[in-house]
Amino acid sequence: MRIPLGVIVLTTAVAVAGCGSKGLRELQQPSTGPDEFLVMPADPLTPPENYTSLPTPTPGGTNLTDQNPQAEAIVALGGNASSLNAGGNIPSSDGALVTASSRYGVDPNVRATLAAEDAAFRKREHRTAQFKLFAVDRYEEAYKKEALNPFEVSQLYRNSGYITPSAPPGE
């Protein structure tokens, strides 16, 4: 009973093709679905303590389950959520911080700009990336020149006299 060579090769190719898992390192947009950063889960509904003292509904207004990401971020970073004014703007006490951090300008379309620049970079760096016989880590391949060696950087800082945290032994 002899199995043709073509069947063996085809079976091996299918088996090897199923071994790869790109996960989060896949650089291509998987779909045109929603932006995961725009989805905000609602707080769980809780019954009021007294049903007779409920406020009147305000169509288009806010309620207890609405998210307020700016106030939640302020609280998470150790601030006071009441310092956020009603318009959702930055409080006047943080004016110096905002001025210093935006001294070189603020791009309201930073995500779109960065995505376009990154796509152009990957296209320029890897024109032949689509011609691969075996699965490769495209993330590693595209950003290899941009990566820092943490051991070299740590040693550079130590040689310069800076105090650095301990690190595991080098490679």
Automatic annotation (TrEMBL):
<dbReference type="InterPro" id="IPR021395">
    <property type="entry name" value="DUF3035"/>
</dbReference>
<dbReference type="Pfam" id="PF11233">
    <property type="entry name" value="DUF3035"/>
</dbReference>
<protein>
    <submittedName>
        <fullName>DUF3035 domain-containing protein</fullName>
    </submittedName>
</protein>
<feature type="region of interest" description="Disordered">
    <location>
        <begin position="45"/>
        <end position="64"/>
    </location>
</feature>
